[in-house]
Design goal:
- Among the domains are: 74-147 and 254-283, Periplasmic binding protein-like II (D-Maltodextrin-Binding Protein, domain 2), CATH 3.40.190; 151-251, Periplasmic binding protein-like II (D-Maltodextrin-Binding Protein, domain 2, 3-Layer(aba) Sandwich).
- The chain has 295 residues and is of the alpha/beta class.
- 29% of the residues are buried.
- Helix 1 (4-11) crosses helix 2.
- The chain contains nine helices and 13 strands.
- It has helices spanning 4-11, 15-29, 45-72, 91-102, 115-123, 187-197, 210-218, 232-236, 267-278; strands at residues 34-37, 40-43, 77-83, 106-112, 129-133, 141-149, 151-156, 166-167, 176-180, 202-207, 223-227, 240-245, 253-260.
- Helix content is 37%, strand content 25%.
- Keywords: DNA-binding, Transcription, Transcription regulation.
- Pfam families: HTH_1, LysR_substrate.
- Belongs to the LysR transcriptional regulatory family.
- InterPro entries: HTH-type_LysR_regulators, LysR_HTH_N, LysR_subst-bd, WH-like_DNA-bd_sf, WH_DNA-bd_sf.
Length: 295
């Protein structure tokens, strides 16, 4: 239910002016847009059609305005991106900070999603682009850039295992582990390792949150099992060490920067895409300690 007086308050115009406009439209259409009830107004079927058309017109006008600004070369607009949890710190926030300094007219919405949800949001065009593991289908997605990420042990600085560049999965026997839980993308890789190697691990803690796992490792609760991407910031700062798990059954995971194949990025989205794409290689393994900083 709605009322003309409430609409007048929202729009800061007189109630009589709104009523007059509604009556004019109803006269032109030859049918009422509202049922006038003692408790207020309710849309008729014709009114619902008109409301939907109005919403579509507003979106079309926003798209037209964005395209006109593109023609004028104005560096402004809004860009939505989807990223996985591992990217909620480090490179992406640093890239956004740099973008805001260079292009203050561009606003950015960041959705931190589970891997499959980030992929779907990109395919459906709910965001301008996404960064996630294993794009799988190339029919619906255009891969703009990709890097390889590996699974490994995460240890506090000074831990003996952390001094090794690579180690077999069996190296964790006798140690308490902090492992990812579903729906984190690496959960299945650990299950594959257990099944193929026959190694029985001592799960001290499992968590579906990367920050929780890294915090527990830092506190000395146990050895973590994560990807090189998950701890790239902490390793570069000297807070944690990363040792690649070298079992042949494992293959690198592909982290991809993708757009929907059916969607042409706006001018603003193109700027943000290019900025993030330029530094994307720094997310790959091996982690370069003296590489670009990701604050």
């Amino acid at each position: 239910m709605g009322s003309i007086r409430r609409a007048a308050d929202e729009l800061n115009v007189s109630a009589s002016a709104i009523d007059r406009q509604i009556l004019n439209v109803e006269a032109n259409l030859g049918m009422p847009l509202f049922e006038r009830l003692p408790t207020g107004l309710r849309l008729t079927a014709a009114g619902e059609i008109m409301m939907a058309a109005g919403s579509k017109w507003q979106k079309n006008m926003a798209d037209v305005r964005a395209q006109i600004e593109d023609l004028r070369g104005l560096k402004r607009g809004h860009v939505d991106i989807a990223v996985i949890d591992a990217l909620a710190k480090g490179y992406v926030p640093a890239a956004i900070q740099a973008l805001q300094s260079k292009y203050p007219g561009i606003t950015i919405g960041v959705r931190v999603l589970e891997n499959d949800a980030a992929r779907l949001a990109t395919v459906r065009g709910e965001v301008d682009f996404g960064i996630f593991f294993e794009p799988q289908t190339v029919r619906d997605l255009a891969v703009r850039s990709f890097v390889e990420v590996v699974l490994g042990f995460v240890t506090p600085t000074g831990h003996p295992l952390g001094a090794k560049r690579e180690a077999r999965f069996s190296s964790c026997v006798g140690s308490r582990l902090i492992v990812p839980a579903e729906p984190l993308a690496v959960y299945e890789q650990i299950a594959v390792l257990e099944g193929t190697t026959g190694v029985v691990i001592d799960r001290a803690v499992s968590s579906d949150n990367i920050q929780m796992i890294t915090s527990l490792v830092t506190q000395g609760v146990g050895i973590g099992v994560l990807t090189s991407l998950d701890v790239i910031t902490e390793v570069r700062r000297g807070l944690l060490s990363f040792t690649k798990i070298s079992d042949p059954i494992l293959r690198p995971m592909t982290l991809a920067l993708c757009t929907a194949s059916a969607r042409t990025p706006s001018y603003a989205a193109g700027i943000v895409l290019q900025e993030i794409e330029n530094g994307f290689p720094q997310l790959s393994y091996p982690i370069s300690i003296d590489g670009p900083a990701v604050a």
